[in-house]
Amino acid sequence: MIKARRVIERRDLPPPPRMDAGQTCEEYIKKLRALGYRTPGVRMIKTPEQIEGCREAGRINSLVLDAVEKNIEIGMTTADVDDIVVKATKEYGGIAACLGFEGFPRSVCTSRNNVVCHGIPSKKERLSDGDILNVDCTTIYGGYYGDASRMFTFGEISHEAGRLVKTTREAVELAVGAIRPYESHLGDIGYYINRHARQAGYSVVREIGGHGVGLAMHEDPYVCHVGSLGSGMLLLPGMIFTIEPMINQRSSRVYVDEHDGWTVYTSDGGLSAQIEYEILIKEDGVEILSK
Ligand code: MF3
Ligand code: CO
Ligand code: CO
User: What distance in angstroms lies between residue 205's CA and the mean position of ligand 3's atoms?
Assistant: First the structure.
């Protein structure tokens, strides 16, 4: 018989000791591990200089999303949304990280209705009455990456669409609000998100998750939006990662468009919503770097 790892994880440890003055990050992490704590790797902890760079990149990324929010309107195409992002990113002195990332052909992801994520802006896709749309921006600024996404709705949306978007926002806020540095674990995030989505009758996508971010678009750790309390690594100051649940109206199953290789759809054609926050874990709480 093999015991599941979750069962033998030690959840009874008190919050760990803080870092001593004069101790390096490497020494501190090593000590915590020796004491039995599951910790992030040293590279997941950013230096004060890196944190400042990420803070600026996150701020610029939010400004680009503000430009989208200000200018987006019903009747536009998603290619027009891409144009807004291109223009605003340039204006603020940033670089749109999506363009050319693993061959992605545009500067932003636009995911409408039954598209879960990684939708490609298109001149043929017009925003019309009742649509819901996720706009996901990643901006490089001063060499650092900022990443966040927002939901937009057009005209009269259905009660269900409105409730899905609201539930998704609540789920992210709940997870962020529950994080306590040195005490919370990575799995807690997925626990709160999944519990909230399920209580509303929805499901959470498992194949795609949040991620460390800052020096690259995607870094460790992988942030699963389904999890259990007390599982995974401790959340320690200096960590920067995204929380970006994709919540589906019905089945959590998804598939990737076989023609463009990017667009992720719900398998049953149901609606999907996503909200992405980029956060920094600090000594005394959480700072939102981009949302
Ligand atoms: N912004 C996305 C994320 O949240 C990734 C964009 S994929 C790309 O991780 F191909 F468009 F770059
Ligand atoms: Co993103
Ligand atoms: Co992301």
Answer: 14
Domains of the chain are 35-290 (3.90.230.10)
Take residue 58 and report the two structure tokens written for it. Answer: 């996150």
The backbone torsions φ and ψ at residue 123, rounded to the nearest 5 degrees and listed phi first, read -70, -20
What residues does 75 pair with on adjacent strands?
A: none
CB 61 within 8 A of CB 146: yes
Return d(Cα 220, Cα 238) in angstroms, integer.
Answer: 13
Distance from residue 148's CA to the centre of ligand 1 (Å): 9
Residue nearest to atom 11 of ligand 1 (CA): 98
Count the alpha carbons within 13 Å of 41 in the hemisphere toward its beta carbon: 7
pLDDT in tens, 62-81: 999 999 999 999 999 999 99
Q: What is the pTM of this model?
A: 0.96
Per-residue pLDDT of 72-117, as tens digits, reads 999 999 999 999 999 999 999 999 999 999 999 999 999 999 999 9
175-207, pLDDT tens digit by residue?
A: 999 999 999 999 999 999 999 999 999 999 999
